[in-house]
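Example record for the data management plan.
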Amino acid sequence: MNEAATTLETLVRLSGDVAGQSSRNAKVSLIVALLRRLEPGQSALAASYLAGEIPQGRIGIGPAQIDALRSAKPAATPRLTLGEVDRTLEELSGISGAGSQVRRRSLLESVFERASFAERSFLARLLLGELRQGALRGLVMEAVAQSAGLPPALVRRALMLCGDPAHVARTAFTAGADGLRAIRLELFRPVLPMLAQPARDLEDALARLEQPFLELKLDGVRVQVHKLGEEVRVYSRQGYEVTAAVPEIPQLIRSIPVADLVLDGEVLALRPDGRPHPFQTSMRRFGRRIDVASLCAELPLHGFMFDCIQCDGAVLIDVPARERFRILSEVLPGHALVPRVRTADVDQARAFFARALAMGHEGLMAKDPDAPYEAGARGRAWLKIKPTQTLDLVVLAAEWGSGRRRGRLSNLHLGARDPAGGFVMLGKTFKGLTDAMLDWQTARLTQLALAQEGQVVQVRPELVVEIAFNELQESSHYPGGLALRFARVKRYRPDKPPEQADGIEQVRALFRRQVAYSS
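Corresponding structural encoding:
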């Protein structure tokens, strides 16, 4: 083994080289070349860091702690090894109690003062979770499979079940295929959520799925609920535990007479007439850490489950949706279920769609009755149908406004995920922004700022925004060849990480259907 290959600096250079490649295969080949030079333990660490994950999980390092270290002079010569970084993070994860902040800062300083400028930037983004990006994680997992001589499907399934790239990489390199096959869904370790593609309209969804389930698309907060006996925990779509913020959900699920459960659903606040509050109102509950009880009384949340991933010891991921939904309806009371019908009749589907909109909901979901639960995947089995087309895109940059918007970041540069890594710009918009949204996005994007050129502020691609638009059109101005027409901001999605934004493949498929429909 080449000792130089174990340095953090080698990993930083590779990360830059990967970002500079446009070909997915070229990116994977670069990662494979590094992983094959390392011992199994080092390979697992390198793969974890490249995927934006640390084996220790969340260790409580925030932006303020990182910012406090940026002023120190960086090391002229890179000296940090992956092993040293891992040992430091392990020690950090174990620090608690009186004086812990001082000890944590001292330990962080000891690492940062030995890191070059490039290494510091990489470490900061790694510790803050800013390296995480779904497309990159997929590249790394494919490289892990090739490097370890394992079937990619086996690696992907292991990741689907545990949602932890660090654990999967470590298992692949140290325990091989048998170790990966031994990975099972574990209670209180959330799996990646299954995701949906946009449909052009209701008729498009009915044409693509045979006699689908149609269910209300709620404008709520996605959650995953795990139950074992009397213990119930609730997780966000990003895998963070939010049990304390939503005591209504454990109260609802704890009394269900089964030994164990893993459920997928949404929580939202309802008005007295049963209509939903806006998404941002429901999200207020997730930002409160103190005096939760008073907010519960002021803004109670209601849980609506739409899928069952495990029930009474049986893992249901590979079971067809129609069977999962049957089990769900037998286990939960009706008021805890998302309303749904199964039909291929256009008139019945239109009536259900109209009912959903009249009740104040976003639209409908259409789901393939034969599909398994594809954790972490955005396949064709789930389609979202809204009265206006929308895409969840990532803010890549913003421009300082003029006139009444002077002093605030206004015009947003919008991008879709690229499977080869990074994002593909689809256009700009300043429409749909209220004064409150302008103030909020200016503060948030300032925190994410990377550089400024003229009036344009480049930002870290972390903020997801839901964009409504009339149609897609061909464009030679943008590298993806497509642009949004009459784009406007519908809402921000702080609950969604950028890896769950819509991808350029979904956008191109939407454009192809648009062309076919109009021809």
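Summary line stored alongside the record: The two ends are 60 Å apart (CA to CA).
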